[in-house]
Write a structure and sequence with these properties.
Number of domains: 1
Order of helices and strands: HHH
Structural class: mainly alpha
């Protein structure tokens, strides 16, 4: 699953690159990014591997395993991109394509 999450990130980066070349046609990019973010959300909740490492008695916390952290960070990054795509699509802030 972490490899699949990284592959989804590459697809999202490719979609951004194509959208940057075809300025003014932002709806398919927004739809693609929403689909990828929902896919990562499903992957995050359906992950069957170990989610947390050993307990750290110095800080009294569990930490994510590397595999689960890759999936969660990918979800966070793609959710942020959905928000930036939406801002650009509505015309409020064209930061992502400037």
């Amino acid at each position: 699953m972490p490899f699949l999450a990284l592959l989804i990130d590459l697809i999202a980066a490719g979609g951004w690159y194509v959208q940057r070349q075809a300025a003014g046609f932002y709806t398919p990019g927004l739809v693609l990014q929403i689909v990828l973010a929902v896919l990562l959300l499903v992957m995050t909740f359906s992950y069957r591997g170990q989610r947390k490492g050993r307990f750290n008695y110095d800080t009294w916390r569990h930490v994510f395993t590397l595999r689960f952290a890759v999936i969660v960070l990918s979800l966070i990054a793609n959710a942020l991109l959905v928000f930036l795509y939406y801002l650009n699509w509505t015309g409020q802030n064209p930061l992502i394509f400037s």
